[in-house]
Amino acid sequence: MHTxxxxxxxxxxxxxxxxxxxxxxxxxxxxxxxxxxxxxIAILFTTVISYTTAYLYFFQQGMIDGKFAMLxxxxxxxxxxxxxxxxxxxxxxxxxxxxxxxxxxxVSSMVHIYSFGYMKGEKGFERYFAFLSLFSFSMxxxxxxxxxxxxxxxxxxxxxxxxxxxxxxxxxPSAVAASKKAFIVTRxxxxxxxxxxxxLSYFTGTFDFATLLDSSGSAVSSMTGLSFMGISTITWVxxxxxxxxxxxxxxxxxxxxLPDAMExxxxxxALIHAATMVVAGVYLVxxxxxxxxxAPDALAVIAFIGAFTSLFAAIIAVTQTDIKRVLAFxxxxxxGYMMLALGVSGYGGEDGLGFTASMFHLFTHAMxxxxxxxxxxxxxxxxxxxYMNDMGSLRKYMPITHxxxxxxxxxxxxxxxxxxxxxxxxxxxxxxxxNPLYFWTEWFVAGLTAFYMFxxxxxxxxxxxxxxxxxxxxxxxSMLFPLVYLAVASAVVGFIPFSEFVTSDGMPFHxxxxxxxxxxSIAIAVVGIAIAAWMYLKPGNxxxxxxxxxxxxxxxxxNKFYIDExxxxxxxxxxxxxxxxxxxxxxKHIVDGSMDGIAWVTQRFxxxxxxxxxxxxxxxxxxxxxGAVAFVLLLLYWGAx
Amino acid sequence: xxxxIGVFDVLVVSTAMFFxxxxxxxxxxxxxxxxxxxxxxxxxxxINFVVFNKYLYPDMLQGYMFSLFAIGIAAAxxxxxxxxxxxxxRRMKGIDVEHxxxxxx
Amino acid sequence: xxxxxxxxxxxxxxxxxxxxxxxxFAILLTAHMEHKLEAVSKLKSLFAGLLALVGTGVxxxxxxxxxxxxxxxxxxxxxxxxxxxxxxxxxxxxxVLPFEVISVLLLAAMIAAIIIAKKSVSND
Lengths: 641, 105, 124
Fold this sequence. Notes:
The structure holds three protein chains of three kinds.
Chain A: H1 9-26, H2 32-61, E1 63-64, E2 67-68, E3 71-80, E4 86-93, H3 95-118, H4 125-143, H5 148-166, H6 173-204, H7 209-212, E5 227-228, E6 231-232, H8 233-248, H9 257-260, H10 266-275, H11 280-287, H12 289-292, H13 296-317, H14 323-343, H15 353-383, H16 399-413, H17 419-434, H18 436-461, H19 477-492, H20 515-536, H21 542-549, H22 551-558, H23 563-609, H24 617-640
Antiparallel strand pairs in A: 1-2, 3-4, 5-6
Helix pairs in contact in A: 1-2, 1-4, 2-3, 2-4, 3-4, 3-10, 3-15, 3-19, 4-5, 5-6, 6-8, 8-11, 8-13, 10-14, 10-15, 13-14, 13-18, 14-15, 14-17, 14-18, 15-16, 15-17, 15-19, 16-18, 16-19, 17-18, 17-20, 18-20
Chain B: H1 7-27, H2 31-56, H3 62-92
Chain C: H1 5-30, H2 42-64, H3 80-88, H4 96-117
């Protein structure tokens, strides 16, 4: 029917996979530029396909019966467990998957182009591009998957690519530790995800999204009424699945890996840890939103964790001095926004505003957060240091980076007409409709966001005049083009009427503009910017004086609320000493001991009886004759019996 | 056949010879002496065959022939044994049976 | 005593003329004038003697309790001609096969004795 139009989408995955194989296997024989070019051409090709698919789907063919349909242009059965339960590999076209496809390919192609300039001359240039292709392949496979199991497969692949890319500078012990940490934390979260998948498929008998999200709700009806330990089964299942999403999206308390993941190269941070991989958790909840709508307790959990995480991360971001750490905590905070928006959302029509807002924020955030990271990379490349204390007054040396960074900072602070204002406004509207407490929390976090973002901006581009050893120069064109492209995107995408395209149940609706929400949010953002300007615009001591006046709060924030230390303490004292050590003792002394004991007994026994093989002729003769005589005696006595 | 001497009496002799030979095999140290004890055992067996032939089956000659061949084989075996003993002597510079024990644990 | 004259002659020839001479040669070749053999250990001779006595007892008991059927005396005597014919006849009760086999065996024993006892040329 309509699906033949989208059959090109299968090329997306095939081309990227082959780019990975070719650059991965033959990279070190190719010239670096050629290896990079293969990868970049592959991703540009997929970008073109994704843009045309999006155009076709949203503007021409996608609507069936007044709502955007879930189309499956390609599906292949891989494993069959029973008559109803099978795992397919396929591609699904759906409003959110098309939107994610556009986001991922855009940001990924920008990162590829940027990496030509940033990673130039690095050892392992080809390996880097191979891993970038692998990551793009996995992420696109994740968003285009037709069923939960395929999504899980690509989920793990994304985790593996992230591990490879974070640990890219494998000779740095901190990078290796960070990649291990990322992988272990997300793997631990994926345990919950897997249990959730298994439970869900057990109760509903299927993995396919099309069946699970069928609007009649027939698939999940088998779970209603069941409960376990006082909480209904459907809540358990959805919370477990959310646990997987929380790990990947760095929600509290599984957020610890994301700041450390900044050890990877900056373009990697832009791609994976700002725009694409970390939103996989949000995407997961959005994908299964039809089922989440039937589990309001699970949604309440998601909303709470989202709100808490955004506040928590924003407080920490206020005091960090490493540029990338500030941006990492900012990412955690913004993803908290997205999760909150999903948590407070209803289903269908205007009630589904939260869903639309979350997806809209995902889209805009990808643009401006990638821009912020790439701009930060540009600054780091020029100054050869990550720390804000080493930077200042860079606006004279790097004008284009300066302007694009400013645009991104304005966007994230929610200043109109840039993109972040529109998406944040819709989130705040959804929060207000659900629970005013969430609204006021997020309003405060918006202020904090503006503050720390402009703290960063002013410290780097205004502020103190530093003594630079090499005069910082503007970055090459390969690094500037993505900055400009993303800046234009950040400025413009706010005007897309997202609710016409992406909604919770597929039917477009018209979202109203709420002035009574917009005015307070702009106001708090302006206040945040003003405070930041007062503290950091001119060189001075205001910041230090404030820090020393609130030492406890400052220390807590600077040390990320000591969460890492708590985890380490738990791991060392409880897990290592309490659980692992006794088991190791048991294994070494009892299991190994019994095996060694058997061997020891055998050896001692054989030492005792080896004397019979003495080589003495007469001893052998004696034994023979003795045996013969004994045998005869035996026969005689038995014969006599 | 001799009057007054039954099978059992001759068999006593041959049994005694047999076990004396075995005792000698188990006790002596010199390899050549051991060989002589083995010859003793073989001779005892020969007596056994001849006695059974003469007393139980005087018309047939199987025991006779067998002991003939046994004598021949004993001679061949003694020759080979002497050759081995000479070789051992060359290696060990002595023919004590307790030193010929390299095929041990 | 049993009128087995040929057997007696063969025994005398082979044993005293062959084997004893061989043994004497061997003793001469392997003797050390100064080499005194150690005495046998008492324990070993005790056990061996014990075994021999027990063996003798068991055998004699077995033989004694077996009823041997002595045949009536026969006057058939076998002279050398008869034995020779018997050795070479291939009908019933002919012994030509063992005869041939023992000739091969003696050949093999001769070769073996030569090979084992010769001085090894290579490593000396």
